[in-house]
Write a structure and sequence with these properties.
- This protein is an all-alpha fold and about 90 residues long.
- The chain folds into 2 domains: about 60 residues; about 30 residues.
- It contains 3 helices and no strands.
- The radius of gyration is 20 Å and the shape is extended.
């Protein structure tokens, strides 16, 4: 992975964390240090866990994905079409 890709991912993650912190901070009526610590630990844990989860999911063998990709593509298209058709009449 080159440096530009890492920088773009880092900026995206920081924008995500900033937006969530603004929205969650606006919901509190009074400031307590407990809420601040819980939010900081939650952000840190999830920001550390998600790249590891993505890396682990990327280890899925390509031979299996080549076998199941047509079925998964068909299933995705079917679910999308049914959802659009149902929502069209609601």
């Amino acid at each position: 992975m080159d440096l530009l890709t890492i920088l773009v991912i880092a900026v995206g993650l920081s924008m995500d964390a900033f937006a969530v912190s603004i929205v969650s901070g606006a919901g509190y009526k009074k400031f307590e240090i407990k809420h601040t610590l819980v939010m900081a630990v939650s952000f840190g844990a999830f920001q550390a866990f998600m790249p590891i989860a993505g890396w682990s999911a990327g280890l899925f063998p390509t031979s299996y994905s080549a076998i199941y990709s047509p079925f998964l593509n068909y299933l995705y298209c079917l679910i999308t079409k049914v959802t659009v058709s149902v929502n069209m009449f609601l």
